[in-house]
Design goal:
The protein has 197 residues and is mainly α. It has 8 helices and 4 strands. The chain has 2 domains: 33 residues, no CATH class; 116 residues, no CATH class. The strands form 2 sheets. Strands 1-2 form a two-stranded antiparallel ribbon.
């Protein structure tokens, strides 16, 4: 919300009012409320790790984890394990958002940004270059890198007989974030009960 306050001169307003103004500005500019990458914020990062021995699904942090902590944990994992990343539109959305937010949070990730200057094995296979395999953006690959051939993940999941996003999509994130924020505020505002000794 800090960026919205700065961009639109909305100092002194509550987060919900700032967000409403940001959505309104974006709707006027583009016809849709989906905010530009630089105006997004990371509230959760979930991962699937597949090794020869196991398949593991988890989220980094918990409800109380601050954005810088989530970002640091994600990039620390990349630094430590150098996994191959597999995403759906990760190059077009997720990673650019992580880049902007990490820049703001001061999170460094030298191995992630490596392009072969320090480690020559990254010259032709790094996380940043579009046609390299250390980050495999399945939407790009399956569409043959043709924007007109791209498909939504939910549509491809349906094509393959999978359930897709299981009832929660990106346009619901703001409302869920507000609900958790309100719950936290209410929980901290409750008076403590005294217990008899």
């Amino acid at each position: 919300m800090e960026l919205g306050r700065t961009l639109y001169g909305l100092q002194g307003l509550e987060d919900a009012a700032v967000a409403k103004a940001m959505f309104s500005q974006q709707r006027a500019a583009s016809g849709a409320e989906f905010l530009p990458h630089v105006q997004q914020r990371v509230v959760a990062i979930s991962c699937v790790l597949r090794t020869r021995e196991q398949l593991r699904v988890w989220s980094l942090g918990d409800l109380d984890s601050a954005e810088p902590e989530l970002l640091a944990r994600f990039f620390d994992g990349l630094e430590k394990y150098l996994p191959d990343l597999v995403s759906w539109n990760g190059g077009g959305f997720d990673l650019p958002v992580l880049h902007y937010r990490s820049l703001k949070a001061g999170v460094q990730a030298p191995r992630y940004w490596e392009t072969g200057d320090e480690d020559t094995s990254f010259r032709y296979n790094n996380y940043l270059s579009r046609y390299h395999w250390r980050h495999l953006d399945l939407m790009d690959v399956l569409s043959g890198f043709q924007p007109r051939a791209r498909a939504k993940l939910a549509d491809v999941a349906a094509l393959l007989g999978f359930p897709g996003k299981l009832g929660f999509s990106g346009d619901q994130v703001w409302d869920a974030y507000l609900a958790v924020s309100c719950w936290r505020c209410a929980a901290t505002a409750r008076p403590m009960r005294s217990t008899p000794i």
